[in-house]
Amino acid sequence: MASSGDSWIREYNEGLKLADDITNMISERSSLPASGPEAQRHSSAIRRKITILGTRLDNLQSILSKLPGKQPLSEKEMNRRKDMLANLKSKVSQMASTLNMSSFANRDSLLGPEIKPVDATSRATGLDNYGVVGLQRQIMKEQDEGLESLEETVMSTKHIALAVNEELGLQTRLIDDLDEHVDVTDSRLQVRTC
Fold first, then answer.
1. 88 and 128, same structural domain?
2. Which residues does the UniProt record annotate as the domain T-SNARE coiled-coil homology (predicted)?
3. Are 106 and 124 found together in one domain?
4. Digit-coded pLDDT (tens) for 68-99
5. Do residue 135 and residue 181 come from a single domain?
6. For residues 154 and 167, what is the distance between their CA atoms, to the nearest angstrom?
7. What is the CATH number of the domain that holds 98?
8. Is the four-CA dihedral 172, 175, 179, 180 of positive or negative sign?
């Protein structure tokens, strides 16, 4: 077996280990208090690992789609790997739904549907020079529209992040003021009890 196939299996096995780690963390979650900073940290760690695993699965899918050209695999082996990947993706989706990570299951809501671009060579087949230039302009226009859409998303996210940051700053100041008030009240109580 060629090295790229071995790297796919190795990457898949690492994904399996990460999935087992996430499953254990989800099981440990039941022993933690229902709320509080420790429970939030634990849930955040689980979400982060699920996201990492999702990225790893996307990478495995990409490598798998490129393997037939790089190395000859039997159809049976390709189907076996596709099944292994589909099963792991299903397991990750179940873990994500356990944590109400619906956005993980449907990344299209954020990034739009993943559309395989038509190969530029096949689009240019049969075109003369003017047609090729027109096609290039059309492709550049499509890319510009995609970038504009991405810019809108980034700006929206930035505004949300700034609003959250401002709210956190306000809450921090309120907590600090409350701490000062508690300290003053505590010292007054000590003076009165003496």
1. no
2. 137-194
3. no
4. 666 677 788 888 888 898 898 888 888 888 77
5. yes
6. 20
7. 1.20.58
8. positive
